[in-house]
Amino acid sequence: xxxxxxxxxxxxxxxxxxxxxxxxxxxxxxxxxxxxxxxxxxxxxxxxxxxxxxxxxxxxxxxxxxxxxxxxxxxxxxxxxxxxxxxxxxxxxxxxxxxxxxxxxxxxxxxxxxxxxxxxxxxxxxxxxxxxxxxxxxxxxxxxxxxxxxxxxxxxxxxxxxxxxxxxxxxxxxxxxxxxxxxxxxxxxxxxxxxxxxxxxxxxxxxxxxxxxxxxxxxxxxxxxxxxxxxxxxxxxxxxxxxxxxxxxxxxxxxxxxxxxxxxxxxxxxxxxxxxxxxxxxxxxxxxxxxxxxxxxxxxxxxxxxxxxxxxxxxxxxxxxxxxxxxxxxxxxxxxxxxxxxxxxxxxxxxxxxxxxxxxxxxxxxxxxxxxxxxxxxxxxxxxxxxxxxxxxxxxxxxxxxxxxxxxxxxxxxxxxxxxxxxxxxxxxxxxxxxxxxxxxxxxxxxxxxxxxxxxxxxxxxxxxxxxxxxxxxxxxxxxxxxxxxxxxxxxxxxxx
Length: 497
Fold this sequence. Notes:
Layout: H1 3-24, H2 28-47, H3 56-84, E1 96-103, E2 108-109, E3 113-120, E4 126-132, E5 141-150, H4 160-165, E6 169-174, E7 177-183, H5 188-210, H6 215-224, H7 232-240, H8 251-267, H9 272-289, H10 294-312, H11 315-332, H12 336-339, H13 341-364, H14 371-395, E8 397-399, H15 402-409, H16 413-429, H17 431-455, E9 461-463, H18 469-490
Parallel strand pairs: 4-6
Antiparallel strand pairs: 1-3, 1-5, 2-3, 3-4, 5-6, 5-7, 8-9
Helix pairs in contact: 1-3, 1-11, 2-3, 5-6, 5-16, 5-17, 8-9, 8-10, 8-13, 8-14, 9-10, 10-11, 10-13, 11-13, 13-14, 13-18, 14-15, 14-18, 16-17
């Protein structure tokens, strides 16, 4: 068995360990049993290798898999221990407290309020603070807060506490007394990030001067990854039509857009290698443009891995690489697995495209001259099949027109991004020029909203309630078995486990 296969299985069982601990709370006695069993199997491999030659690899892989299963459980337990023993959260719901800290991100602005992520100086912990809309605060502002720390709310339908856990935020504060007391010292990274936020704000102002809502808010979401200006009704319409990924920074978003960029560059006459580097540059620019958010960086990694697999022509290698990337992300933050829908969608969308896209293309068998048109359809379908169970579980609904709306909308998204970006940049220099360039983007956005409004009717989606994690797990096991079956049947080369 090759080293890459062994690494693949190790990564899978590590993720399984995190998943099991998230659901079951594995006892220390079971961990010791699994750990000792793994050590025994590895020792047997070397002690009996002369008499068990054909079973050597199986013993070695089984031993390491058991040990990394334990490692996954322990990594999640360490994270849970840190949450329970967080010093600042001990003050939650315990009365008024005075804290000093630094605003460490771009404030999220709403109609009557703004949200600040503040790193508390004394405890080095982060809290989410909601304050009045004015005065406005900026990245690196040092502030003094006087108010009550609260535990994030939990309801039957939504756990805000779990939503914030992935960002290591265990406390919130609503409308405290707040005073700006200075500006934190800058280093190279903070200076660079400040410059990005400055450019982002200039582009946001340019967009709002050339477009009116809801076109302006959608363009901010597509270009800048900022959904705060998008109304809940518009978000619901995009979700009901299966188009939420257009206004979300996710691997699904970046992979599909990168595929379209590859298609355009190939149509312009570039070689595949040249188109690959052009798409990689697009990913880098986009990640920086949205402010290098953690979700955007993860999505960019997923998208780059997919494109690398396309360039190398090794689907099996790219699938193992993406599993490795996912395992490494969970090693640093295991809470992403259960509490970050963006991570789940990014990972599964790219994995679905890698595993299913070649199979669907083989089954459909379109003529070679229509290959580029086919790719748009198969990439969309592959991503949606693999993300559908997670979407149903988290949002409780399924779009019946998702495939159709994606086929209608996705071809115009590169135009929206191209003319929208040029308009936003030009508008920072000369508003009239920005408005002139915005005209093609305006008509494309009108088309997008026409399609969304037409298909966002009650008949276009179905509500599905009380979906359990067991159903989700069984569905993905079935997808894995089905994918492997078609791989063997069609003798494809991209799944060589």
